[in-house]
Specification:
Elements (H helix, E strand, L loop, with lengths): L3 H10 E2 L11 E7 L2 E6 L5 E3 L2 E2 L1 H10 L1 E2 L6 E2 L7 H13 L1 H6 L4 E5 L5 H9 L5 E6 L2 H9 L4 E3 L9 E7 L8 H11 E12 L21 E2 L2 H10 L2 E10 L3 H12 L15 E9 L2
Parallel strand pairs: 8-9, 8-11, 9-10, 11-12
Antiparallel strand pairs: 1-5, 2-3, 3-4, 4-13, 6-7, 12-15, 14-15
Bound molecules: zinc ion.
């Protein structure tokens, strides 16, 4: 007979959900990791963790920077990566060339700013007099950004009263339990015709889990999209795509790293350079409704 105490704990911390994009309830398994399962929606193909930790559990983990379920100790704070500043300076300079050339000051909010690398990068590119700020729920990251003098504040979109011309969400998508609601919150802080810059991987397009470069980091990552899914999320929320940029990740260094990971027993595919279907994809989109 089942122990009722164990069931009680499971009911509090874990919940079964419908597809966060199409609300479909049919799915098939895609991958398992850390005691969680990522499934593929039978209707739209979105990949999402199901069952997943309850929203209260997710929120607690995000604020603290760690998952503390009974079966899992997963630290997700990581560290500042200074190379990101130059990487995103180039990306923003290219994708927002029109804004840069116009020369008029803008306001930019980076949501999920982490240690503030993207805030630093954007500040180097945008016209003089622009306001560039970051928003981050994870306390240890905010503390480190502030210590370096980078304008990152602790909190969520619902805490913001100002309006911004651009909101960036770089590698945030997979962490957000309800991205439809999240996009509405973004619209709430955008000026009319304001824009989003969204970056995520294309795991929802690659088919086999083994093409994913490295651990899936379940359940810190809750959702994996392909290009078609992000386009649909944006369209549904009243955004019009301005530009899409795909970045290959499978150079020689990537292939060697994956070979090493494979030898260490991690479930990644060993691919020749320039053969992996995995991409980093950036979407620039404008609010039109
Ligand atoms: Zn679906």
């Amino acid at each position: 007979m089942a122990d009722p105490h164990v069931n009680e704990i499971a009911e509090i911390n874990i919940e079964t959900i419908a597809c966060p994009l199409c609300a479909g309830e049919k799915y098939s398994p895609w991958a398992a990791e850390n005691g969680f399962c990522a499934v593929t929606c039978s209707d739209c193909g979105l990949i999402y963790v199901n069952p997943r930790p309850s929203l209260a559990t997710i929120d607690r983990a995000v604020r603290a920077g760690a998952h503390r379920e009974e079966t899992l100790q997963l630290n997700v704070v990581s560290r500042r990566v200074s190379a990101k500043v130059e990487q995103y300076r180039k990306v923003v300079a290219e994708m927002f060339r029109d804004v840069v050339e116009k020369g008029e000051p803008i306001s930019w909010l980076d949501v999920g700013a982490g240690f503030g690398e993207v805030v630093e990068a954007v500040a180097k590119v945008v016209p003089a007099g622009s306001r560039v700020e970051g928003l981050e729920p994870m306390k240890p990251k905010v503390a480190q950004a502030k210590a370096r003098g980078v304008a990152v504040r602790e909190g969520y979109l619902s805490d913001i009263n100002d309006k911004y011309g651009v909101v960036s969400v770089i590698n945030v998508f997979s962490h957000v339990p309800d991205f439809k609601q999240f996009l509405q919150e973004i619209k709430g802080v955008l000026t009319p015709n304001g824009e989003v810059l969204l970056e995520t991987g294309n795991a929802g397009d690659i088919g086999n889990r083994n093409y994913f470069p490295g651990p899936l980091t379940l359940p810190d990552h809750l959702v994996f999209a392909g290009e078609r899914h992000i386009r649909r999320f944006l369209e549904q929320a009243g955004f019009e795509l301005v530009q899409i940029k795909r970045i290959r990740i499978d150079g020689l260094v990537y292939s060697i790293k994956n070979l090493v990971k494979r030898l260490l027993g991690q479930p990644v595919a060993v691919s020749l350079p320039y053969t992996s279907p995995s991409r980093t994809v950036l979407f620039r989109a404008r609010s039109v409704s």
